[in-house]
């Protein structure tokens, strides 16, 4: 078990080195823009609750993948095959599918966790409004909640790397992306209307009122999420012909 994770880490680190400078440049831009926008939305009080929620959800799902260089992103390889070029290239290596899948999870972690953690920390340091509303201990729980969300939900984005082989995949991907975006906007819009607070505000309240319970549930969801997305990726790799 540990040996497979070690091998997966080596593969992920090799790809990370190949895309390091482009990825770092993109991540720094995202880090600067996101931190500034989130701080700005909180300074606008209730009028910008929905904007902050959208920024948070995107940061912990799609944004890390968008920051990868284009040559490493999900794309049309040949014919009807759509996948990450890295997945196709490493198929010929003497490694198991389990190692390949774990390398994708680790690589996504490289792209996501540092920028997400730094953004969350700086938001608290630079926002007097949040400091007055949430204690350092409660905000630490809040960080755990969102970093965990970035794993048990965000890792779902990684499953696209393993690819698919079907006609009209490009159109389907565009349609699904548009559908997800609309659903996200509707969800974000409905929260302040029906539940008084936005998604981010509610997560702060939960972190304050139920720190132990929310931390425990987050950790459980992380464990379940990793196993679930690994199973989905393995199923996809068994179905897709990469030749």
From TrEMBL:
<protein>
    <recommendedName>
        <fullName>ABC-2 transporter permease</fullName>
    </recommendedName>
</protein>
<keyword id="KW-0812">Transmembrane</keyword>
<feature type="transmembrane region" description="Helical">
    <location>
        <begin position="172"/>
        <end position="195"/>
    </location>
</feature>
<feature type="transmembrane region" description="Helical">
    <location>
        <begin position="20"/>
        <end position="42"/>
    </location>
</feature>
<feature type="transmembrane region" description="Helical">
    <location>
        <begin position="139"/>
        <end position="160"/>
    </location>
</feature>
<feature type="transmembrane region" description="Helical">
    <location>
        <begin position="105"/>
        <end position="127"/>
    </location>
</feature>
<keyword id="KW-0472">Membrane</keyword>
<feature type="transmembrane region" description="Helical">
    <location>
        <begin position="210"/>
        <end position="229"/>
    </location>
</feature>
<keyword id="KW-1133">Transmembrane helix</keyword>
<feature type="transmembrane region" description="Helical">
    <location>
        <begin position="48"/>
        <end position="67"/>
    </location>
</feature>
